[in-house]
Amino acid sequence: MARLSGLQRDVLSFYRQCLRAVREKPSDTRPHFRDFARGEFRKNIGVGKKDFGTIEYLLRRGRNSLESYSDPGIKDIHR
């Protein structure tokens, strides 16, 4: 398997953070959060590996969203 670039490692690490955050939500709404996170990653799957600006922008936007959704007061997410 080819070695991952630093940015690729950042994206995978962020994906794992998202899935870990899902575990903190109530069990009946976890599928909603998990589906939302997966959907956001799938929506941007077409971004090229060399499109660094876009990837960094999406990571920043995603981290801000994760911070918001990780708030214990948010119990469910609707698409």
TrEMBL record:
Q: Which GO terms describe its biological process?
A: mitochondrial respiratory chain complex II assembly
Task: Describe the location of the Complex 1 LYR protein domain by residue ranges.
Answer: 9-67
Q: Which InterPro entries match?
A: Complex1_LYR_dom (IPR008011), Complex1_LYR_SDHAF1_LYRM8 (IPR045295)
Top-level taxon of origin: Eukaryota
Q: Does the keyword Chaperone apply?
A: yes
Coiled coil (UniProt feature): none
- What is a single cellular component term in the Gene Ontology annotation? mitochondrial matrix
Query: Which protein family is it in?
Result: Belongs to the complex I LYR family. SDHAF1 subfamily.
Looking up PANTHER family in the UniProt record yields:
LYR MOTIF-CONTAINING PROTEIN 2, SUCCINATE DEHYDROGENASE ASSEMBLY FACTOR 1, MITOCHONDRIAL
Q: Protein name, please? A: Complex 1 LYR protein domain-containing protein
